[in-house]
Amino acid sequence: MLMMHINQKMSLILLLSFLYFRQVTVAQVPRLHPDEAVVVRQIATTLGATLTNPTDDPCQSGKLLVTKTYAIVTEFTEIVNNITCNYNDGTFSHVTHVTMKSMSLEGTLPPELVNLTFLKEIELTRNYLSGGLPKEWATMRHLNKISLTANRLSGKIPVEWGKFANLTHLSLEANRLSGTIPKELGYVNLTELILSANQFVGSLPITLENLAELKDFRISDNSFNGTVPEFIGRWSKLQRLEMYSSGLEGPIDPTIFALGNLIDLRITDMSGPKFDFPKLINKKMKSLVLRNLNMSGSIPKDIWDMGVQKTM
Ligand SMILES: *[C@@H]1O[C@H](CO)[C@@H](O)[C@H](O)[C@H]1NC(C)=O
Ligand SMILES: *[C@@H]1O[C@H](CO)[C@@H](O)[C@H](O)[C@H]1NC(C)=O
Ligand SMILES: *[C@@H]1O[C@H](CO)[C@@H](O)[C@H](O)[C@H]1NC(C)=O
Ligand SMILES: *[C@@H]1O[C@H](CO)[C@@H](O)[C@H](O)[C@H]1NC(C)=O
Ligand SMILES: *[C@@H]1O[C@H](CO)[C@@H](O)[C@H](O)[C@H]1NC(C)=O
Ligand SMILES: *[C@@H]1O[C@H](CO)[C@@H](O)[C@H](O)[C@H]1NC(C)=O
């Protein structure tokens, strides 16, 4: 039954890719700037991809033509190979988005990326990339989003990463990163910061208080220490907070539960002195998971009337 499903899916993929190749023979965008074409080839090599046609223009084909990848295709594996060149200077195109998801890339992160001057997004989720985070990346003025979720990256977050001018989304989830969170990260105007499932230690730096635009903060499964900072209760735009087994200790400041935009709050496995269940919980809360916390007192009655999906 399952086999049949996969087979059908694979023939569908083959059919779609055939149609896709037929379509893209008509060029709609100017060709990639020759300097960037060189950089793209360097990047492919560093990431561990083998180009099948090094002279292919990724702005025309919309992807990097690479040799077969070996990701195990399941219903949940979304293989994406997408190069977008949304900026042109009148003569040449420039790469703006690089997405290579679940492509079994086994190389390292390319410092050469900085020479794609107009890059806005880099998304390398679910590969086997190892090595460190390149400090050079922080010089990219347009870079908005970095997703390196589920790789084998190690080492520390470089202090240079505090210099990103336009980075809003940073996900480093599920890697082997370690060390403390550099205080410089608090100088980047992030809306999303996802550090879960790594080996980070130390306390959260006080500079993170500056992240007034933060909507999504996840630090589950790390070895942080110190108490949950009170400043989280001042992140007024926060919508999702996830701290499963973060290593941080309670108490959890009551202002955090009351945050007006917080609709998804998950905290589990936290030691520290006993504290009371907060009297006030944001009325718009949709998901609330509080487990194995040193909390006492009664759960406010109205929380059951809110239609909250609760696990306690
Ligand atoms: C490729 O990425 C761009 C920018 O993220 C997106 O607009 C486009 O729909 C994607 N194309 C495909 C075929 O997935
Ligand atoms: C970017 O390109 C310049 C000029 O080709 C080169 O000197 C420099 O080493 C490149 N930077 C990286 C990080 O590869
Ligand atoms: C910074 O990002 C925003 C949102 O994507 C964009 O509108 C703006 O043009 C970017 N600025 C630069 C310098 O790239
Ligand atoms: C941070 O980003 C928001 C939009 O996401 C913007 O309104 C605000 O001005 C930025 N703040 C700084 C200090 O750059
Ligand atoms: C927290 O962790 C840091 C880094 O590992 C360590 O230097 C510090 O002593 C720890 N603090 C406490 C209170 O355990
Ligand atoms: C819970 O709080 C009590 C009283 O503050 C303390 O004695 C106990 O060690 C705490 N338990 C945990 C698991 O932190």
UniProtKB/TrEMBL annotation:
**GO CC annotations, alphabetized:** membrane
Keyword Acetylation listed? no
**Pfam families, per the entry:** LRR_1, LRR_8
- Region forming the signal peptide: 1-27
Location in the cell: Membrane
Tell me the superkingdom of the source. Answer: Eukaryota
Q: Give yes or no: UniProt keyword S-adenosyl-L-methionine.
A: no
What UniProt keywords apply to this chain's record, in alphabetical order? Leucine-rich repeat, Repeat, Signal
How does this chain sit within the bilayer?
A: Single-pass type I membrane protein
Q: What is this protein called?
A: Leucine-rich repeat-containing N-terminal plant-type domain-containing protein
Identify the species of origin.
Acer yangbiense
